[in-house]
Amino acid sequence: MPGPPSRSGSSTARTASGALLLTGHGASRGNALGRARVRLPHALEVAEQRITPAQVPGELQRLHEAVEAARAEMHDLRQRLHGALNQEAGEFLDLHALLLDDPELLFGLDELIRSGPYSAGYALRVQRDRLAKVFDGMDDAYLKSRMDDLDHVIGRIHAFLHKRPPDVKGLAGEILVCDNIAPSELAQLQAHGVVGIVTAAGSALSHSAILARSLHLPLIVNVPNALQKIADGDVLGIDGSTGQITVNPLPLDLRDYRARLREQAREQRELGRLRSKPSRTRDNVTIALLANAESREDVTEAHALGAHGLGLYRTEFLFLQRDELPDEQEQFETYRDAALGMSGRPVTIRTLDLGADKADRTGLTLSNEENPALGLRGIRLSLARPKVADTQLRAILRASAYGKLRILLPMVSTREEIRAVRRRLAKQAELLRAEGHEVAEHIPFGAMIEVPAAAIALESFIDLVDFLSVGTNDLVQYLLAADRNNEAVGELYSPLHPAVLRLLAHILRVGREHDVPVAVCGEIAGDPRMTRLLLALGLTEFSLHPGTLLEVRRAVRDSDLGELQAAAPKLLAARDRRSIERWIESNP
Ligand code: PEP
Ligand code: MG
């Protein structure tokens, strides 16, 4: 199941047949069997790698291109620095740029490649070790510590040396094992045929995990010993539901693996029968199941599964993995296609939620924030970049002529933010109409509730919105002061904290009192283990990834709303997580 995983911690064990079994957190379900491709973070080639004299010119060129790419990267980063850390971070980058230009470093490298003759990677290693000795011999602690900078610079050259296209191409049918993965890498990896990913760090609630689920790419995170225990070329059997990785499976393991695949296929067939069934409880209450979407494929899947609409279209994914911002026309076509793809069902376009772990490459997000999750993200970023915001609003307004679009603002914390966007929207609608575009008469306008202040003071701005959507992924992290991406506080990050449930119940109650519909679009809405709890709290609108829609529909159809709501007071009186878990267990 792809929702928030059990956090039982990671351990090393053996399968019944004796193969090594590693356990992490299943972040995107699905099974995969493939060869491991281990990507070490900035690890330099250790083994001596000699080349033939004929290969020397090619290897020199490879090195020079990598140095050039590292230089361009630093220049690019330097250009984007602004804000408080500009000076400090800038100084480091300047120093790194100086090191890159240091003839001692480069000349030595060329010489090693020629005289070895060595591969560029190994020459880099030898040169690094030589310089390390020099730094080690220095008395001055400050100068000694400069070796870290040199390591960073060498690491970047090395990364570029290994970023060559054949490296990516060779990935077809392989399982990537790496330290961590950025959302921006995932689609490209899948396009090159990667069948699964295992990361040593990371969290099942990160945006990388959300995107992996959207791509149906099995992902297991937080396997601390993955890089030590898995070698390049090992055969891996991974199960993205349980978080288990079998290293070099033996015949018995392969039999188990095939049996699991058959069981999953049977389960999928059974769920498939619910495609055309209503999402109605046993006592005949219809529950709206809308879909979260990040891509065109999600829209198609949502439609096919009979989703009531799109409850959350994450537009920021259009801005990632590219160097230029998407223009108005490209955005318009994307939103229009989402509207058309849902054939008249509501489609909720969330304005840009860049920032924190969704950093783009276009320079829009700040790269130097000390606390990016508390920084310029979501609606704050849009309001700080009014041109970008207006372009997006225009694209949404133009697309509104093609379906039932709704607008949703992320990370709202003040009344003024909503008013500011409403003003911009009205202005752009007026301009577009004057330019001859058709714009819908009324576009429902909503706010995400993911900042505790917005939840607590909901009554102070609810008059400004037509609907609300609770982003529990962020609400939990901000309410409990536990980073959603940091496994070190994974035990604390739990939607089953009594404070979370009470706040959810409060939001739902205020929504009801003001006749403003409230949905939940965080990952808990897509976790069938949480369905009854959410129904008990009074939720009647879920927005979830299409991948789990049928499982949640099954849970809804197996529930009796009246019974669950009668059991809600006990749930809300719970004093700890264990009591809430017991409530869930006793209301299966
Ligand atoms: C959330 O925070 O719950 C949410 C749906 O938004 P995102 O996961 O994109 O931050
Ligand atoms: Mg959020």
From TrEMBL:
Name recorded for this polypeptide: Phosphoenolpyruvate-protein phosphotransferase
Alphabetical list of SUPFAM superfamilies matching this protein: Enzyme I of the PEP:sugar phosphotransferase system HPr-binding (sub)domain, Phosphoenolpyruvate/pyruvate domain, Phosphohistidine domain
Keyword Metal-binding appears in the UniProt entry: yes
InterPro entries, sorted: PEP-util_enz_mobile_dom, PEP-utilizing_PTS_enzyme, PEP_util_C, PEP_util_CS, Phosphohistidine_dom_sf, PTS_EI, PTS_EI-like, PTS_EIN
Cofactor(s) annotated in UniProt: Mg(2+)
Species this chain originates from: Stenotrophomonas aracearum
Annotated family: Belongs to the PEP-utilizing enzyme family.
Transmembrane segments: none
